[in-house]
Design a protein that fits this description.
- This protein has 2 helices and 6 strands, in the order E-H-E-E-E-E-E-H.
- The chain is an alpha+beta fold and 127 residues long.
């Protein structure tokens, strides 16, 4: 079980959350890739064990929604949720959608659409 480092807003870095092992494994891989603290976890889908949002620490938009439901190991559905336009009644604007991406493609999406980059040394065991 992971120790919670989170805030009251359901956003944490390496959180203590109840998710499918595919999501927990993804979070571990992201921490290895980017470094612990380089990204925040936004869980607007707490009832969906196969979905999570990844954003910059301290923010909830833009975020990359990632789902592993009915995906082969190491494959993901992802879509970008952008901040809402001024005056919008919606919580976000829909960005690009990606039906089937690999982990390395997910890294590119996080960098390009969310702006997540390494913040420090990689976790031990990273190449």
């Amino acid at each position: 079980m992971r120790d919670s480092l989170g805030s009251a807003e359901q956003q944490r870095t390496m959180p203590n959350i109840e998710k499918d092992s595919t999501i927990l494994d993804l979070l571990d891989r992201l921490a290895t890739e980017f470094g612990v603290g380089a990204f925040g976890v936004v869980d607007h889908w707490d009832a969906d064990l196969c979905a999570i949002g990844i954003a910059q620490p301290g923010t909830d938009r833009p975020l990359l929604y990632v789902c592993t439901w009915q995906k082969e190991p190491g494959r993901y559905y992802a879509d970008v949720e952008l901040p809402p336009e001024t005056g919008s009644e919606h919580p976000y604007e829909q960005g690009p959608e990606f039906a089937d991406v690999s982990f390395s493609e997910l890294i590119v999406l996080l960098n390009r659409h969310v702006g997540i980059r390494r913040t420090g040394p990689l976790s031990s065991g990273a190449a």
